[in-house]
């Protein structure tokens, strides 16, 4: 059977499926890699910059750049979903890149820590607009059958670029100093991302409209109450609180980024206190997102076969074990093993949570549900920065890591008890045949 056709306003036929939209999907993977690179320029260098250049000693103050980043990104995620439904995906993506352009320049020229804070507000806004939109656009293109694989590819590109950039900036900082060399990469990423998004990326909102028009209710009756006509308030309430799978995903996403904020802000300081060189700190800072990024190529596709729920719960528990190991030991080799485990656990969780949101949310309000989920998920950066900073100031860095490890284990338990399996695979339907590209 031929894929489902649909005519856009420009009288062009569109089809759902990964194979049918391979060129545009690949372009969006590249764009999201550049989005990840903008984040990766800070992972190794910025905590050290705060301590060594600006003399930031209190952990809470040092983590302030992550706190404002998390608040800005979380809020922007929500509006990105609403705006992409109202104005289209591409304008939101381009706007995000425009906001990103000044970020590396501010980090290079910053005469005080307040400039760094402003740069991270802009980075958070930019990441909320660009990353959220690339997620929604890929979900639009592929249809329901290979959603997990699509999210795995998206997140692998983004966090693989975070890892490569964190490693590169570590070596640049060791060879040429903390500024300006590491942030020159950010200037290149912003220029490329803005150019590709403006000139080559196409609008995908019509693909979501096609899927909505051909949407087939689940045979088991799940989601029947989640009809297509929901207000913004109803979408927020269902996603955040009422719908068991959606709300379980939101809390797991928040806790996942809570421990990522901890890793971003405190791990480099912990490793430096143990006497590691900037190059080795950069290697450890890169190892975790590298495994996270590459692992999602496998875990996203596996969740299409095995289901979402237990992949998420097991990933949270593996992260908790890894964090406990980092808090317990003080040698480079064991820290490297723990970083691999932390990356593997995060890889199990990250694309699977997004795929679960896509499973449950109706195509007509899916972009808003993704925005709401990402509001809670990236709010974890702010919660993690505040919680980790307060505990570290009071009891030390290792106590902060133990605290976050416990919260991560509890989050996995909530998923196990409250979430149902969202990925329903009945006998192959005509729609699935049509969309399975």
TrEMBL record:
Listed InterPro entries: MFS (IPR011701), MFS_dom (IPR020846), MFS_trans_sf (IPR036259), MFS_Transporters (IPR050171), Sugar_transporter_CS (IPR005829)
Location relative to the cell: Cell membrane
Record domain Major facilitator superfamily (MFS) profile: where: 21-423
Gene3D superfamilies: MFS general substrate transporter like domains
Keywords, in A-Z order: Cell membrane, Membrane, Transmembrane, Transmembrane helix, Transport
An example molecular function term from Gene Ontology annotations: transmembrane transporter activity
Key word Zinc-finger present: no
GO cellular component: a single term: plasma membrane
UniProt keyword Amino-acid biosynthesis, yes or no: no
Transmembrane regions listed in the UniProt entry: 21-39, 59-80, 92-110, 116-137, 149-171, 183-201, 261-279, 310-328, 334-354, 401-420
SUPFAM superfamilies noted in UniProt: MFS general substrate transporter
Membrane topology of the entry: Multi-pass membrane protein
Domain of life the protein comes from: Bacteria
Record PANTHER family: INTEGRAL MEMBRANE TRANSPORT PROTEIN, RESISTANCE PROTEIN MDTM, PUTATIVE-RELATED-RELATED
Name of the protein this chain belongs to: MFS family permease
